[in-house]
Amino acid sequence: MDRYHVLECIGEGSFGKVYKGRKKYTGQVVALKFIPKVGRPEKELRNLRREIEIMQHLHHPNIIEMLDSFETPKEVVAVTEYAEGELFQILEDDGNLPEEQVQSIASQLISALYYLHAHRILHRDMKPQNILLGKGGVVKLCDFGFARAMSINTLVLTSIKGTPLYMSPELVEEKPYDHNADLWALGCILYELFVGQPPFYTNSIFQLVSLIIKDPVKWPKNMSPEFKNFLQGLLVKDPKKRLTWPALLHHPFVKEGVVVLDETKKLTAAEMPFTEEPPPEVQAAKAKAVKEQTKKTGQSKILSKAREKRREEKAKPAADKPNGKGEAWNKHQGPEKGAGSTPTKIPRATPANPAVVAKMKGQAQAEDDWETEGKGKPVTPRSDRISHDYAREEDVATQKAAAAAKEKERKAKKSFENVNLESEELDSDDEWQQFIEATEPSNMQLTAPMTLLQDEHFASRISARLQASGQQVLEGMLEGASRLRPVLRVICNLLATKCDNELLYKLCQQMEVPSFTLHLTKQLLEKTNIKKLPWCLQVLGDLVSLLTAYFSSDFNISEIKGTKSFEVFEKSALSFVEVLPLVIKEPTDHDLKLREQGLLCLMFLCDAMDHNQTDIPKRFYSRLVEQNRTVLNSLVTMARIEPGLLRKLEIVLPSPVEASARVEQMFTMTTSVLASMIHIGGKDNGKKMVASYITDQLLSSQNEYILKELMERIIDPNNCVSVIKVLYTTSQVSRKMCRLVTSQEQPMAALLAILEGQVPLEESVLLQGFEMTLQLLSVFLLQLNKVPQVLADAAGLIVDIYVQSQVPSHGAAAALLLSQMSNYGVEIEMQIDEVLMACRHVLSELSEVTVPCPLQHGILDGMLELLLQLVHEGDVSVVRLFIECGVWNLLWHRLVQVLHINSQTEMAVYDVEGEEKILSPRRPPPDWSAMSPSGLMVMMQMSTIVFTKEPHQCVPLLASADSVVVLCLATMLSDFFLAELAQSPGDEDSSPSERVIDLILQVTQLFCFPFAVDTNDTILSETLRCVREVQLVPQLLLVSRRYLKLHLLEMPIGLVSRLILGDSQLIPQFVIMVQNTESTGFLAQLLSPEAPVAVTADVLSVCCHIARNSADHMGFLKTLLMGQKGDYGTLLSLLNHTSPVVQSRACSLMGNLLRHSDDFYKVLKARKQLVERLLTLLKDNDTNVRKCACLAVGNAAHHNGTLYSVLGTAVPQLVSLLNDNLARTRANAAAALGNLSRHSSTLCVPLIKNKAPHRLLEAVLHDNQVTVQESAAMSLRTMCHRRELKEVLVSLKAADKLSSTVQGARTSTVSTPGSRYSVSSGSHRSASAVAQHCLKLQRLLTS
């Protein structure tokens, strides 16, 4: 691996993973195929090495080239050239391709196959998924996992390899085959590229085999004759008659595009027996080999495996089906026309639907586009090409025979199609049997159910029969039972179709279901004499089955508008749990079938509650704990095999074996129901109350034996997952449960046995059981704050799971466990690259989590903890590897998903024209199940470390508003997100409010990095543009005002100041936000003496910049400085502040307020204390204060002489400041003295008295800073306009003295940088400017 950089995962399969990579020092992009050795038999590894060996010798432009291969202790790594696209993906996206493009692909595939076959190599797995696209659309054949290199003497093969849809007839019949099987597959692929589906397609593997062997190909009319002839040659069922080499090379459809390499042309005919016409003796030998190796049995391995799978699926108990439901209640989405299905009779209670007729005509028209027999073009198959639901793929012949016999038997009977619902009495058993069959969900046709539901007479007639027969049942009449049961069956069937929620709910209301059902059930259970009748239990079972169908209906999850469906659901659920104890404890239920149905109904009710997003579940479970504890107590009691139960069942069941199986089945059902009752998903819908109660019951002394038996059942494959669910939930609500489980050797050993693969779980629950075991072990650590020794000893096992697991959620669960083990002192040994590769796998592949994380943790939290430890302890090289391997980027993309950022335009934006709010699409709450609030804080801590150690790779991420980093950071500052974070549950380390504060500061710190490190001007400019686009300044001010106290504001306000000073375009955002959100008071608070000095100084810097930039926001600044009383008390307090920094910036603010106009003069004239304080600051000990005070005084005299009378007292101090140590102060003082004579002669006397002209002339002549010389020269020019002052200058012979200065200035190149608070533009001044001013001054003096 030292020779390659791994970039990103581009594929995954049962073999392992494929990554895009780059060869070091060359830049060559490659594909790296990592195949784990762990768990693979030696034979499979040998085959893998054979594939690599074959590919290493293949060098063809249309075959993926093997560049390198090597092995590590844990993996085999194959390095191939990188192809950018997949033919299968194009087929997925576009449906089919034009013939010209298919022709090009055909020529390239023919070239590749000719090369392979010429070298005696069979591919044996030709399919679109194994065809890649390189640069320029070059086709690349890949995946030689089934390839076979044949010796010269090998004529045929017999082992079955490949994908069923592309298998040749000889393959599916398990006859010997040769290279012609690849050519058949090629024909199938080209047909699919043009048509959009393979030539033989069905959802049934049984039917597929029949189609491939017997059915002709259907040819579309828009296929050219040349192309059709080519495919007809390839798709000949007899391999001996199939178009093959060498004639295939010269077929008109491909001959212009086929390329035969020079090295292939050099091979002799003996060396390439497949691509040359074999001599007669070879043909005879080949025919003999085919005959000898053809299997005598007609049994196909393909069909055998399918039937075996079907039997396994049938053998599973109903509760273990993938959706957790019994077969009778499977959800059907719509009609499915599978092979061998018999048509369902359609009721004709209503006239034919014109829309349906039109649709049928459209289908008939579509069928005319095909040249051969068939029922029209089937839908384009994709990922579900061959169904794996073998339970519904019954033997076609058996089905047809059964259907024919049934039809013959009932041929003379009255057809359901002729039943008139409006006038006929539906009393005959035959008529009701027709209704049952027409509505049977297994028919997979919804026409009959929809017809019945839409018929206005159906509901009333069936309701009448329901009520009448129900009353007869209560009277103990057998006739009533025989009339009631078909009605219940029909209603169950209709509900099971889930075809139309509104119509189904309306039907239930019309028939008073489930209230009638519940009432009748309760009455029957209370009538002892009726319960003794043999048919009563069957009726009760049907009633409970109807309740099950009702509770599993979708209208209990999505409310029907304009109805009270949810209200009825809640009332019915509470009524059912009142009746349930009678159902599961019924004494006459000797075989426990009624108990089983009652428990199943409860399971479906809990499932409906899990999916209902209202407060109904919370109220239901609360009532269950408070008022219906009998149900919960019964479940706890039944979680142990009742003494004597086996003996009772042996009496009523045919054999002891069946009795024992029944006991186990009921125990499994009970644990499943118990788990569904208390297992808490991602959101607590009230089950936590039930879990707490059940936990208390299990931990009580009288139920010790029950808990013990449950723990013993962990290693029982049938009960393992349910028991772990119970322990997982109860451990989260009780530390005592954790201590009890971890203190016993047996349950801990059993849990580790699951992780070691020693418990043979069913495939349908294997992933969930494995993941939940990892999470349960994490719960123990989180609850007990320590690691049990047995788990510490198994650290290596957990590391292997994390590093090697191909299931992303398992890797994430293992990471959480490892992070907790590390926190509690267990030494975890992992290589850095192992940690990063495992993280990359989880981040890139995680799409579904089967088990919610425990105790408010997110699925990614553990991995984030491991990464934080890695970057914290690692040096810069580790952080650089962390970034370059792609984990850093994937983390931010995962955060995008957590925050529900769906597009780049979903930026949180401040509404600058409305009230205080953030304008952004209303997103769902953050996905805390993926990354919890605590995990988010870990992510931010890690980000700060990464930015600190590798700033030059990270800072550019903040320079684009489209980057995922900026999107995430901006979203995390939005009001909506922070409100969600504030409402999230806290933990032991921090409260929600503390998290909000920490997050704001962390985000702020990240945005500070571009201004804290050495960044080039381009990045800095782009960062400021990005800041404008995401409106960071308004966001920071809003969150600072809402969530941060004064002592925490230094960083965010400092960043705001830095941003505005760097980009004047941010000023409008700042001002408008403060004005529209009434945040002026907040800013005034930041200017108060209670605020930190740094915060006050930064706000003043912003205000100075606003004032200096333009006079447009004068009103805003005046409002801010007025204070509550309107007397500019805020400004005065700033001038009187104890901090020189604040005083200097307050003076600077006054100077800039006076810069553009005399609007602020009125304020100073009305409030002389401001001027007096300003003049006092001219004498301050701090140089910056004096400097800024000079600026303010000078600007106060610039526009007019209104304030001359109050400013006159400043003349002596200003003259004195011409000798100040700071050049900028001297320049400001010189400019101020000039302005005091600018508008009138009022101050000429004090200016002359204090020798202002003398000192200014000396400054021009002798100061060593050109900025001071320039300011002094300009002031003297101003004074020359006053006769008194000009006479003084003339008397000083200023014109003569200036001559030498002018000459020296002309030859001088000395320049001094201007001060930050420059009088004019602040740019550098040159000596030539001084010379110009002196020349003009000379002219004024001599004129």
TrEMBL record:
Cross-referenced CDD domains: STKc_STK36
Documented EC number(s): 2.7.11.1
Presence of keyword Transport: no
ARM repeats: 1209-1241
Tagged with keyword Transferase: yes
EC supergroup of this enzyme: transferase
Record localization: Cytoplasm, Cytoskeleton
Annotated Basic and acidic residues bias: 305-335, 372-397, 405-416
Residue segments, region Disordered: 270-428, 1302-1322
InterPro entries found in the cross-reference section: ARM-like, ARM-type_fold, Armadillo, Kinase-like_dom_sf, Prot_kinase_dom, Protein_kinase_ATP_BS, Ser/Thr_kinase_AS
Residue ranges constituting the Protein kinase domain according to the UniProt record: 4-254
Xref: SUPFAM superfamilies: ARM repeat, Protein kinase-like (PK-like)
UniProt catalytic activity: L-threonyl-[protein] + ATP = O-phospho-L-threonyl-[protein] + ADP + H(+); L-seryl-[protein] + ATP = O-phospho-L-seryl-[protein] + ADP + H(+)
Pfam families (alphabetical): Pkinase
GO molecular function, one term: protein serine/threonine kinase activity
GO cellular component: cytoplasm; cytoskeleton
GO biological-process terms attached to the record: smoothened signaling pathway
Signal peptide, first to last residue: none
UniProt keywords, alphabetically: ATP-binding, Cytoplasm, Cytoskeleton, Kinase, Nucleotide-binding, Serine/threonine-protein kinase, Transferase
Binding residues for ATP: K33
Polar residues biased stretches: 1302-1313
Protein name per Swiss-Prot or TrEMBL: non-specific serine/threonine protein kinase
